[in-house]
Amino acid sequence: MRSEMRTDLILTRWGDIAVTQNEHTGQSIVFLHGNSMSSACFHKQFSELGTRYHVVAVDFPGHGRTGPSSDPAAYSFAGWESVLRDVHSQLELRDPVYVGQSLGGHVLLETLPDLAGVRGAALIGSAPFDELSSLRRIFLPDPSDGTLFASNLDATGARRLARSFLGDTMNSENEDLVTSSILGTDGEFRGQLAASLGLMPRRRELDVALKNPVPLAVFQGSGDRFINPSYFDEIGTSGFWGGKVHYIHDSGHLPHLENPAIFNPLLTQFVQSINA
Q1: How far apart are CA 27 and CA 9, in angstroms?
Q2: DSSP string, 14-83
Q3: Mean pLDDT to the nearest integer, 243-271
Q4: Number of other residues whose CB lies within 10 A of the CB of residue 188
Q5: Could you tell me which of 212, 206, 260 has the C-alpha nearest to residue 237?
Q6: If 86 and its partner were Cys, which of 12, 24, 71, 197 is the partner (CB 3.0–4.6 Å)?
Q7: 218 in any annotated domain
Q8: How many Å apart are CA 137 and CA 178, to the nearest integer?
Q9: Which residue in 40, 185, 51, 143 sits closest to 101, CA to CA?
Q10: Average pLDDT of 137-153?
């Protein structure tokens, strides 16, 4: 049986960071959430993958069980990268595989060359930046009606943003969970994130994705409203695990939450291929 999940606080230069994990002694899989999400959105990985792996999820500043920050720098790309480096250095990880969703995927690519001992990396709803101009090629027109970077969201706005994250087959359970994560996020983060976009990327993420020796898997929801699938055709996918993007049907920007019956076995297959 899987170990029960517990939440610990890890002291970083940005304050205490909440990390949820089980006590399994197997290989570590570390999950990184995206904008306005939280570790709670990986609960379907905790319950299923936790029987075989040491599963870990980080709540970045102002998200989930990590409190808000009074330092705006904690809400920048550089701040999240610093958090990840600090957390990685303090966690007891075993041959870790990192999984980053959306913004968490970009933070993962930016820090990947600095994380010692990582065996594999996976992106969910996250397309590697080539240069700042590639943002226009990566993203579809904003499906969130401006809520993605809105500092102040009421319940109606949070639900609108949640529905933009989820695919057409969304159910009320997932919609409520995602809405709750959005409402639980410090709204100042979204405003600071928009302001810091012009400072990205520090590295050319595409170079990291295609040239770093760490194996990389890319997972996309077939109904993702944010990512332009033609961008992957443009950059080529031969360097990704399996030589392709793995599309998960009946899901949007959060395929791990929306269709875990497809996502979890795929992720497990990726981890097993690394260890073969």
Answers
A1: 21
A2: TEEEEEEE----S-EEEEE--TT--GGGGHHHHHHHTTTSEEEEEE-TTSTTSPP-S-GGGGSHHHHHHH
A3: 98
A4: 17
A5: 206
A6: 12
A7: yes
A8: 27
A9: 40
A10: 94
pLDDT at 131: 72
Whether 197 maps to a domain, the answer reads: yes
Within a domain: 1: no
Supply the pLDDT for residue 1. 45
Burial (CB < 10 A; 0-12, 13-18, 19+), residue 260, is buried
Task: Determine how many CB atoms are found less than 10 A away from the CB of residue 74.
Answer: 26
pLDDT score of 133: 65
pLDDT at 81: 93
> Beta partners for 112?
none
Task: Tell whether 41 is covered by a domain.
Answer: yes
Q: Give residue 11's domain range.
A: 6-275
pLDDT of residue 3: 64
Residue-wise pLDDT tens digits, 63-93:
999 999 999 999 988 899 999 999 999 999 9
Q: What global pTM score does this model have? A: 0.96
Number of domains in the chain: 1
In the chain, helix, strand, coil percent, each to 5? 45, 15, 40
CATH number at residue 90: 3.40.50.1820
Alpha-carbon distance values, 192 to 77, 107, 199, 211 (Å): 10, 15, 11, 31
The mean pLDDT value of the chain amounts to 94
Residue type, 159: R
Residues 6+ apart with CB under 8 A from 131: 201, 204
Is residue 194's pLDDT more than 50? yes
Dihedral angle computed from the Cα positions of residues 119, 113, 77 and 236, in that order, rounded to the nearest 10 degrees: -80
